Amino acid sequence: MTNFFLALVLVCAGAFAFLNGFRDASASVALAVRTRALTPTVAVLLASLFNFIGAWLSATLVLAISQTWLSLPAGTNGLTILLAGLLSAILWGLYMWWRGIPASSTHALVGGLAGAGVASVAVGGYPVTGVNASLVSQVVLPLLASPVIAYIGAYLLVWPATWAERYTPPNVVNSRSRRAQAIAAAAVAFGHGLQDGQRTSAVVILALLAAGFSDGGSVPAWVALLTAMMLSAGTLAGGWRISYTIGYRLVRIDPLRGFVAQIYSAVMLLVGAVGLHWPVSTTHMVTSAALGAGANQSFPGTNRRWVIRILAFWVLTPLATAAAAFVLQLALSPAAGF
C-alpha cells in the first residue's frame, strides 16, 4: 500500500509542476507580450527554457525546505497528507485558470498541507511536526509580505526610471525598454524556476522520506529532472487566460513601466530563493509589481474591480485548499489504515 500511495504522490507532484508552469507562464510573458517586447511564441519558448534551467538548479535549495520547514509522519499516513494537499492545490489551480485569476500555487500547496495535517489528527493519525515559529517567519510572512513589497518597490522605481529618460524621445524610450524587457522576462522565468521548482522537488523528497526510500541527505538527479521537465512542459502549453488578465484587464502599462515591474520582480525572486531561502510567489510578485508600476503614471491605468476580485481570491486560496484537503484526507484515511 505504501508503494501505491508513493506512486500516486509522484504522479500528482508531476501534475502540480505541469499546472504550475501552465498557469504561471503568465508571470513571465504577460507584460512582455502586452508591451510588444516579445511575440507570444518567442515569449513562451524563452520562459520555458529559463524555467527549466531555474528548476534544475533549484535542487541545491530543496533540502533546506524539506528538512527545516516541516516533517511528515512515516508510512502511508504521511503520503496521504501529501496526496490530499497536492490534489486540493491542483483542483484549485484549475479553477483559478478557468476564472483567469493569477493566484499563487505556493499558497494553495501550503494551505492544502495544513488542512490535510489537521484532518490526519482528527481521525487519529499522526500530526505534521515542525510547524513552529520558524515556519511562520520563513514561509508565512514572506508569502504575505511579498505582494506589498513588490507593489511599493515597483511604484517607487518608476520615478528614477522616468527621470533618467526625461530628455529621451518617447519612441526611443519604448524601443530601449522593450529590449530590456525581453531580458527581464527571461530573468523572471529563471527566478520562477528557482522558486517553484523547489516546491515540487521538496514534495517528492518528503514523499520518499515518508516511504523510507531516502534519508534526506541529497536530492536525486531524477527528482530535479522530473520537476524541471514538467514545469517547462507546462510553460510551453501556456495559460493565456491568466496572461490576458494581467496584461489587458488588470492594468494599462507602457514598456518602461513593464520593464521596471519585471526586473524588480526578478531581483526579488532571486534574492528570496538564493539569498534568504524564502518562498516568494512569482504570481503575487509580478502581479503586484505591475500594479505598482502602473499606478505611478499621470492617468488612471488600474481596473479596481479586477484588483478587488484578485485580492479576494488571494485571501481565499489557502482557506479553500485547506478545506478541500481536509475533506480529501478524511476520505483517504480508511485506505491509510486509521
Model description:
- The structure is a single chain.
- The radius of gyration is 20 Å and the shape is elongated.
- The model has no long low-confidence stretch (mean pLDDT 84).
- The protein has helices at 2-34, 40-57, 62-68, 76-99, 105-122, 133-164, 170-211, 221-237, 240-250, 255-275, 282-295, 304-336.
- It has one domain.
- With 338 residues, the chain is mainly α.
- The chain has twelve helices and no strands.
Can you tag this structure with a few keywords?
single chain; 338 residues; mainly alpha; 80% helix
Global shape: elongated
**Overall number of strands:** 0
Portion in beta strands: under 5%
How many individual domains? 1
Largest sheet: none
- Per DSSP, the total helix count is 12
Poorly predicted residue ranges: none
Query: Order of SSEs, N→C?
Result: HHHHHHHHHHHH
Radius of gyration: 20 Å
What class do helices, strands and sheet pairing give? mainly alpha
The average pLDDT score comes to 84
Helix content: over 70%
Task: List strands and helices in order, with pairings.
Elements: H1 2-34, H2 40-57, H3 62-68, H4 76-99, H5 105-122, H6 133-164, H7 170-211, H8 221-237, H9 240-250, H10 255-275, H11 282-295, H12 304-336
Helix pairs in contact: 1-2, 1-4, 1-7, 1-8, 1-9, 1-11, 2-7, 2-8, 3-7, 4-5, 4-7, 4-12, 5-12, 6-10, 6-11, 7-8, 7-10, 10-11
